[in-house]
Amino acid sequence: MSSTGTTNDITQETQKLLHAAGLNMVVLLEHVHKLEGIEGSSAGFSGSSFKKTIDDLAEAIDKEVTRFLIACKPPALDTEIRALCPKINAGFFQLVQQCDRIPKLSGKTYLDAVRKAVSKSLVAIVMLFNSFIEHKVEVDKAVLADLAYTASSGIFWEHCKALSQIPADNKAAVSSIWVNTISGLVKDATEELRDSLDEAEAGDDKDGGYSDDDSMNEFDPDIPAERVADGRKIFRLVTTAKHTCDKIGLRCIRDCEPLDDERTVWLDRLVDLGKTVQSAVDDLAATLFIEDDEDWQKQLYVETENLTNALSKLVTLAITFVDDKHLPWFELCRKQLDAAKHSSNIVR
User: What pLDDT, on the 0 to 100 scale, is given for residue 262?
Assistant: First the structure.
């Protein structure tokens, strides 16, 4: 059957094959996007072995896709393209098969990391196929929005790298989340609050009290001079939050051994409570910039209590499996937080 060449020199017949391959990827994508893990113990599952298999598959897929791109360069080699499509399909199918082996008890944070990495790679290959065909394969908008994906054929290799960066286990996944989105953000908030208080005490009116850094909008306005003393108390509590998050990152997450089912659930719960603490830190610091004095006093009390309670829950959970030699620090921190709940003093 004769085929009419297109502007990219790939025949209509081959384009149909690419379209079908893209549809297969969408089916796999929808499956992976709903990945929740299989029931049962995680005892027989090895994150390290899984990661090695994924690395090998990603390398194999990368080689086939490189050959595919070369074949697509004008003048297109239709025979080569048709031979490579099934191989690329098979590589991603094996990838998804491996994902279906992951137990639910391996950890929701770990599962989420795997789900996102594989989903991004599947979206990337669909977009790559779409760049060579007239009738594009559609990807569910909700999936794209969830991945915050920017379509570009050249991004494929970035997502192959993402596959090789899948964490070895839930501890590694939790550690990454903790450093980047919990402990790291609490550290940033602590430093920004300290700088704002230092400027307020120094009477620094440069730039009208506003910064050019949009990421610091919450801390840009000047803190009123009459709130600096309360601000220092807030700073002490926020600093306690920072020290607590740092300590948990080192003594609870990094040193977590063995990674059994109970500790896996514990690590996930630490992430949940850690996110609450991080949010409470931002909310408490923001009270310093409330314009109405009466509202500020009310909100200060509410947000101080919220952060104190959130920290107490986090520290209490941390104690569950922390090594005995580090237990005194957490016990002391918990006592200080309990005392703060029944007084106007903020933990030092």
Answer: 92
Give the Å distances, CA to CA, from 79 to 92, 130, 259, 312.
21, 19, 50, 65
3-state secondary structure 62-106: HHHHHHHHHHHCCCCCHHHHHHHHHHHHHHHHHHHHHHCCCEHHH
What's the one-letter identity of residue 165?
A: Q
The model carries a pTM of 0.70
What pLDDT was estimated at residue 70? 87
Enumerate residues 6+ apart whose C-beta is below 8 A from 166.
50, 51, 54, 113, 114, 117
**What is the spatial distance between Cα 223 and Cα 17, in angstroms, rounded to a whole number?**
63
**Low-confidence residues of the chain, pLDDT below 70?**
1-8, 145-161, 204-221, 342-348
Nearest to 282 by CA among 334, 325, 219, 225: 219
Quick one: residue 40, left, alpha or beta (phi over 0 = left, psi -120 to 50 = alpha)? left
Say how far apart CA 159 and CA 155 lie, in whole Å. 7
